[in-house]
Amino acid sequence: MKAAWFESFGSAQDALILGDQPTPQPAPGEVLVRLHTTGVNPSDVKKRAGAFPNLLDGGLVIPHSDGAGVIEAVGEGVDASRIGERVFVYQAQYGRRLGTAAEYVALDAALAPKLPDEASFEVGACIGIPMMTAHRCVFADGDVNGQTILVTGGAGRVGYYAIQWAAQAGARVIATASNDADAALCRDMGASEVVNHREENWGEQVVAANGGEKVDRVVEVEFGVNLPEVLKCVRIGATIATYSSTVVPEPSLPFRDMMFMDLTLRMVIVYAMPEQAKEDAIRDTSEALAAGRLQHRIAHSVPFAEMARSHELIEQGGFGGCVVVRIND
Q1: Record's superkingdom (predicted)?
Q2: N or C, where is the chain less crowded by C-beta within 10 Å?
Q3: Do 130 and 42 form a contact (C-beta atoms < 8 A)?
Q4: What are phi and psi of 124, to 5 degrees?
């Protein structure tokens, strides 16, 4: 099968190799998926760059955890009726070496849920990390109906879906965006108000936009940078659910201030989500996709030959939406 892999850490151009690898066979409890698309996320490019020094100890790594395709074979114990089923794949390269940047992937059948016919394979490649992360951030701490949720970076990969999950569940959503186009996009997704996080004291603007009331929850994209402003606009007893702190990777906390606000700080990463949370996210996502209730923002869809470019796009940033690589056009 054609595949992309790396045998050493480095830049995308230097480290990623495109060529042929043996087609895997499904072990007991596994399915073999012929992939049409693979999704590229920040965790994928960080692994290739060397964020986990022991990653290559077992041999080469085919990167990427997300993807979508069709089940072509099943292992012992898996119902043969699943052959031919359209599926999305998540956690393919978590705790193992062989991910979705290839024509085929063999993995636990539970990690390849059915992809509704209403969703394209490109959309399917955006479920595992972007959609499921957003779902966890919004719903991890209970019902949001009637609450006010702040979504920072609302036009981004995760924020885009977080706005939709929250608004459709009955929450009032306030988002942050850095330009008029992204602000309009956030409103289209369901945000009632949008403030510019590039402006000073934007936390106070959030309170003003909420009629002088502070917010109940926050879905946070840049925890370390945004925390001072977030603390200006969260109520006592609020929850901050954060999935990234790239600019300030090891932030310091104003512990006393946060303690006296009785805040809950939740760190979210799909890999460590409780299994029930994953099942809930998959169920809700499947229902929403089948009903056409989610809008999608695929910023870049590139051919397999441009795998290195897909990694570079994630590293360069400056855009909202997902990056997808087409394996079989």
Answers
A1: Bacteria
A2: C
A3: no
A4: -60, -30
In a domain, 163, yes or no: yes
Asked whether residue 277 is domain-assigned, the answer is no
Predicted confidence (pLDDT) per residue in 217-257, tens digit: 999 999 999 999 999 999 999 999 999 999 999 999 999 99
- Picking from 191, 38, 23, the residue whose alpha carbon sits closest to that of residue 124 is 38
SS3 content of the chain, % helix, strand, coil (to 5): 35, 25, 40
pTM: 0.96
Claim to verify: residue 267 and residue 134 sit in the same structural domain: yes
What is the four-CA torsion angle of 227, 232, 237, 241, rounded to 10 degrees?
Answer: -30
Render pLDDT for 33-50 as a digit per residue (tens, 0 to 9): 999 999 999 999 999 999
Alpha helices in the chain (DSSP H): 12-15, 42-49, 121-124, 132-139, 159-168, 180-189, 202-209, 223-233, 255-260, 275-291, 307-316
The tokens describing 301, both together, are: 């869809």
Q: Residue 212 is part of which domain span?
A: 130-271
Beta carbons within 10 angstroms of residue 188's beta carbon: 12
Residue 121 shares a structural domain with residue 140 = no
- Check whether residue 149 and residue 116 sit in a common domain: no
What is the structure's pLDDT at 320?
86
Give strand ranges (E) for 16-56: 17-20, 30-40
Q: Write the CATH number for 18.
A: 3.90.180.10
Looking at residue 228, its amino acid is P
